[in-house]
Amino acid sequence: MGMSHVIFPVFLRCRGDKVVREFDSVEHIQCWVEPIDVENDEYEGWDSQGFPISLQLRGEASIIVKLLEEPAARDEVFSAFRDFAAAEGVPFERQAKSHDLHETYQDVKKAINEARNRLPWWRKALRRI
Fold first, then answer.
1. Are the beta carbons of 67 and 6 closer than 8 angstroms?
2. Is 121 helix (H, G, I), strand (E, B) or coil?
3. Which of 2, 41, 56, 83 has the highest CB neighbour count under 10 A?
């Protein structure tokens, strides 16, 4: 494989979950991810070019991000974004012009936040339970 390093930002989601989160550094990931979940292979993710990544432990609690030896899976990433948007009740149309995953993710997050802000206060309260 020609490319051997992860290009940030990376996009992660827990297996079986629809929420996709964007991380701009390994340090940012370490603040959010539990080492036990890494050990149990609870996450799937992609780098900013769409290459699949895995999280691995180095030592007890140091998390590293490793590029998997697989081809880019940009359609898989867009599909994850679409699932994330749909879970929040937001339609997601992949913009033909946008090939940038970060830009697309920001569009999805903005639409989700706008949809959440339109919810009545009691629906917002129920989301926290």
1. yes
2. helix
3. 83
